[in-house]
Design a protein that fits this description.
The chain is an alpha/beta fold and 257 residues long. The chain has a single domain, classed as 2-Layer Sandwich (Nucleotidyltransferase, domain 5). The protein is 41% helix and 19% strand. Strands 5-4-1-2-3-7-6 form a seven-stranded mixed sheet, sandwiched between helices. β6 and β7 form a beta hairpin. α3 packs across α4. The longest helix is centred in the last third of the chain and has 23 residues. The termini are far apart.
C-alpha cells in the first residue's frame, strides 16, 4: 500500500497512552513451584523516572546501589520501601500474574523464551484495556538469533485483542531503567511472599522481621494489601493461574456462600 492510499488513523483525545514496565521473579526449573511476572503501568513514565531519582537523591542512594529485591539489606530496606511507595504516589497502577507450575508449566513443552512470552502475555492481556494504546518495556531475556521477542509479544497480544492496542514492545537492561527495577520489587515481593506462606504458613510470614519480609510487607501495604492474595483493586490486579479461571473460582465461591 502506497502512502496515498494508506488509511488515516484518528485517535480520540480521550485515548490514553500507557507504558507497561515488566519484570519477573521465580524459577523456570522443575523444582520451583511459582513464577511471577509483574508490571508497573503509568501514563507518565517521565514523571515516574524523576520521582524515583528524587527519592534516590534524598536518601543518597546512588546509581551504584541497584534497586533490586534480592539485594535488600537492613540499611537499604527502608529506602526501597520508600521508592515503591513514591511510585504508587506518582499515579502508577500495578499488575502481577502468578504462574503455579503444578497446574501448568509452559516450559515443559516450549523453548525457554516462549515460556517467558506465555507468562508475560497472560499478565498484560489482563491489564491492557480497549481505551488505551500501550508500549511494553521488558527486562531483557535471551532469545535465539533472528527472534524479536518484543515483536512476538506484541503480535501475540494484538492477535488476541483483535486490534492493535500494543504499539510496540522492547527489551531493556533493567540496570539502566529505574521503572523496571520497581517492577522487579513487585514481582520479587509477590514471589517471596507466596513461597514463604506456602513453606511456613501465613502467621510465620507476618511475624518475619528479615529485610526481605519487611520489604515484601511494605510493598503489599503500599498497595492496600497484606500478603498478596489474588485481587482486583484500583491499584493492583493480581491473578494466579488455576485449572479454572479466577472469574470461575470467584463465582463458585459466591455460590457456596
Amino acid at each position: 500500500m502506497n502512502r496515498s492510499t494508506a488509511p488515516t488513523i484518528h485517535l480520540p483525545l480521550s485515548a490514553e497512552g500507557a507504558a507497561y514496565f515488566v519484570d519477573e521473579a521465580g524459577s523456570k526449573g522443575s523444582l520451583g513451584k511459582h513464577f511471577v511476572t509483574a508490571a508497573v503501568r503509568t501514563t507518565d513514565p517521565d514523571k515516574l523516572s524523576r520521582t524515583i531519582k528524587a527519592c534516590r537523591d534524598k536518601n543518597r542512594f546512588t546509581n551504584a546501589d541497584e534497586i533490586k529485591f534480592s539485594k535488600v539489606n537492613r540499611n537499604s530496606q527502608p529506602i526501597l520501601s520508600e521508592i515503591f511507595s513514591e511510585a504508587v504516589s506518582s499515579g502508577c497502577t500495578f499488575g502481577a500474574f502468578v504462574l503455579d507450575k503444578r497446574h501448568f508449566d509452559p516450559w515443559s513443552d516450549r523453548d525457554q523464551w516462549q515460556g517467558h512470552l506465555f507468562a508475560t502475555d497472560r499478565l498484560l492481556r489482563g491489564l491492557i484495556t480497549r481505551r488505551e494504546v500501550s508500549v511494553a518495556l521488558l527486562d531483557h531475556i535471551d532469545v535465539p538469533a533472528g527472534i524479536s521477542y518484543g515483536d512476538e509479544l506484541a503480535a501475540s497480544l494484538n492477535n488476541r485483542f483483535g486490534n492493535k492496542r500494543v504499539i510496540t514492545a522492547v527489551s531493556l537492561d533493567s540496570r539502566t531503567c529505574p521503572a523496571l527495577q520497581v517492577a522487579d520489587l513487585l514481582a520479587s515481593a509477590v514471589f517471596h511472599t507466596r513461597k514463604k506462606i506456602e513453606d511456613h504458613g501465613l502467621e510465620r510470614f507476618l511475624e518475619d522481621r528479615t529485610p526481605k519480609a519487611r520489604l515484601a510487607k511494605d510493598i503489599a501495604a503500599a498497595l492496600g494489601e497484606t500478603h498478596f492474595a489474588d485481587c482486583r483493586t484500583h491499584l493492583l490486579k493480581l491473578q494466579t493461574s488455576h485449572k479454572k479461571s479466577l472469574t470461575e473460582l470467584t463465582k463458585a465461591h459466591h455460590e457456596v456462600v
